[in-house]
Amino acid sequence: MIFQYKKRKWIYIVVIFLPAAVFMLLSINSLGGKMNIEMMQSLFSGQWNEMKPSCINVLDNMVLGSWEKDKLKEAEMAAVVNFHKKIRAYHGINVNLQHKDNICGNVMHGATNRGITQFRALCDPNGSTPCCFENKCVFKTVEQCRCKNCFDLRQKLHAELSTWIPAEPTCKITMFAGEEDSCKVMKDMTIYFIGDSFMRQLFIAVLSLMRKNKPYGPFINGTPTDTLKYCDRHYMLTTECSPWIGVNADECKNTTRLREIGFWKTDQVSEMLKSVKELQDQPNSIVLLSVGLHFQFNLQVVENKVLNPLLLSLANSSWPKVIWLSAPSAGLMKSPGYKYQQKENGIQYNIKANELMRRKGIPVLDFFNMTEPVMSFDGTHHGAGVNDLKVQVLLNYLLEIKTST
């Protein structure tokens, strides 16, 4: 009798708890796409009722999609086109990017005394020979110009004149309009933007959004009026205007601290680590990290010289949390002289770097897909449209983490 009782007891236990155990195992298996959120949930504490995310799994769903061209006013189109023309003129390039002899492709041109001195020679998209085919500007339709070694500016769009649509229909972008919205997510946070000029642009775009209704915007107080007029939404991201924007900012009534740390070479590692050490054990602190271009997309160097020392320095600390930002796509103007910075090199670097980061439990914001179809103003950098979108995606990700339970 005693044996039978114990037997029944175990049967009851199995019947009652087995379904729950199976459910838990299935749930764990289904969490693959959510693991980064779980790893980051410790970022925030307390109840959260201010805003609700409109996209599940931002890291996967919001960064994949396509651009749709907007219905525009003539003035909006002119502002963007004129910006690109002025940048080209500044670098001593024909504004239509075409050589008089119609040679293009693996040919470099540009002034030799300022800025980025070499660019790829291309073809005038509005001219009679818009397709660069076998290193010669020829007449071909857009479809005919879709080939391996073809270059066609007609196939690129301006993000400022387009809207990003995530491929996942249920993923909607919550648009943050300015300081009030942004502070609902960023309040009490400290964020360090560490990396090259891509990270500098993101930092500027964040400040631009948060200070859009302030007299000087993202610029330091006392910036000359003529500088403010020249450095509008488009030009503020250029090297001419960037010096008028600081590297430290206290926002959200001094509850949010933002800092931009320029980092693009190995002899800056010790200073970078020293800066990150300031955040050790500081709750709600984040390091946004993005490097690669100036390391010639050599992942082994980045891992051994940058990532491993950084993670080792944080091994015994719960803060800060690290988020990796992938490299954007190179533009058509990228000079063939930059052998290791071409589009294909960037693709392979991102694939391997993203995989490495995920293995180490580091969330990845991969912006390559949204930059590939977009016109770059110098072959490397993208304008306000792309960087404004990056800010929105970043804020949506922070919102998703903050509201996850």
TrEMBL record:
Q: Which Pfam families match?
A: NXPE4_C (PF24536)
Q: Where is the NXPE C-terminal domain?
A: 171-398
Indicate yes or no for the key word Membrane.
yes
Q: What keywords are annotated for this sequence in UniProt?
A: Membrane, Transmembrane, Transmembrane helix
Looking at the UniProt entry, the stretches that span the membrane are: 12-32
Q: Which InterPro entries match?
A: NXPE4_C
User: Looking at the keywords, is Membrane present?
Assistant: yes
Q: What is this protein called?
A: NXPE C-terminal domain-containing protein
Q: Which organism is it from?
A: Candidula unifasciata
